[in-house]
């Protein structure tokens, strides 16, 4: 098989990265994908950077063994902890994270340079988003809030009920006059309908999925490995635990049913 026909690898701590996969499949309709969710060890967002880096490099190795032509770290926490390390480990394929595309999208969206970042503890503590936004907008006012409970709610499929609403109200309670809310975790886009109800109409909600898909598309073109000869359009799923649950709850993130036959349990 020619390199351009190989699949793109995508990994996340669990199901949140499916929001990125959804955007990737939309922007790159001729490509095939292998998605790996480390469901046995989620969440990543409350673990140390060293631990997350170790997990991320394991996930990358599993996907490389499946023969991929590019790798997407579809997890904000893993991107902050391990992007440069995975890129160094895999110098021969493009490795794209979600932080830089998401920060760029927020910079392009804000009008008053006041931005609220919602993320996991590890992502917020890393100041990755804050640093990139501040570099582009030196006078920006950036508030970042660790919102790890949202990850657990999303993984439970609890994205529309009163518990999810109460959690979002709590995390938004200290919002001042930000005109942009950046979802700094790939689990959080499933809360967009609730966020739209809770936020003023002029406030824009930004997530990194669409921007990341654009970045991956450009990386494939730059490397000359975009699939232009024989469309694949296949997606295979790998999980480290709970394949049946992944299929059921993952449909919320992907926006369509998952075929249980396409989900494979692997040992990390």
What's the shape? globular
Percent helix: 40-55%
Total individual domains: 2
Helix count from the secondary structure assignment: 11
Classify the secondary structure makeup into a structural class: alpha/beta
Q: State the CATH architecture of the largest domain.
A: 3-Layer(aba) Sandwich
Q: Which regions contain 5 or more consecutive residues with pLDDT less than 50?
A: none
Please state the average pLDDT score.
94
Largest sheet: 6 strands, parallel
**Strand and helix order:** EHEHEHEHEHHEHHEHEHEHE
Radius of gyration, taken over Cα atoms and rounded to an integer in Å: 18 Å
Summarize the structure.
The protein has 268 residues and is an alpha/beta fold.
Secondary-structure blueprint:
Elements (H helix, E strand, L loop, with lengths): L7 E5 L5 H10 L5 E5 L11 H17 L4 E4 L2 H14 L5 E3 L1 H11 L4 E6 L1 H6 L1 H9 L4 E6 L2 H7 L6 H11 L7 E5 L7 H7 L5 E4 L1 H15 L11 E5 L3 H12 L8 E3 L3
Helix pairs in contact: 1-10, 2-3, 4-6, 4-10
């Amino acid at each position: 098989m020619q390199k351009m026909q190989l699949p793109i690898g995508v990994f996340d701590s669990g199901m949140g990265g499916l929001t990125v996969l959804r955007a990737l499949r939309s922007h790159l309709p001729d490509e095939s994908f292998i998605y790996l969710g480390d469901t046995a060890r989620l969440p990543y967002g409350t673990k140390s950077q060293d631990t997350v880096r170790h997990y991320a490099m394991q996930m990358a190795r599993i996907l490389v063994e499946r023969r991929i032509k590019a790798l997407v770290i579809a997890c904000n926490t893993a991107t902050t902890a391990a992007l440069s390390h995975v890129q160094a480990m895999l110098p021969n394929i493009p490795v794209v994270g979600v932080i830089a595309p998401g920060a760029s999208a927020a910079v392009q969206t804000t009008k008053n340079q006041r931005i609220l970042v919602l993320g996991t503890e590890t992502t917020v503590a890393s100041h990755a988003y804050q640093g990139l936004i501040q570099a582009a907008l030196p006078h920006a006012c950036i508030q970042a809030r660790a919102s790890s409970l949202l990850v657990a709610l999303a993984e439970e499929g609890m994205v529309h009920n009163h518990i999810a609403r109460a959690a979002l109200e709590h995390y938004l309670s200290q919002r001042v006059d930000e005109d942009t809310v950046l979802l700094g975790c790939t689990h959080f886009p499933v809360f967009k309908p609730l966020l739209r109800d809770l936020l003023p109409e002029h406030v824009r909600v930004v997530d990194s999925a669409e921007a990341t898909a654009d970045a991956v598309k450009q990386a494939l073109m730059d490397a000359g490995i975009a699939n232009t000869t024989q469309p694949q359009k296949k997606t295979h799923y790998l999980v480290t635990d709970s394949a049946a649950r992944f299929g059921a709850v993952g449909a919320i993130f992907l926006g369509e049913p998952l075929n249980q036959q396409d989900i494979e349990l692997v040992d990390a």
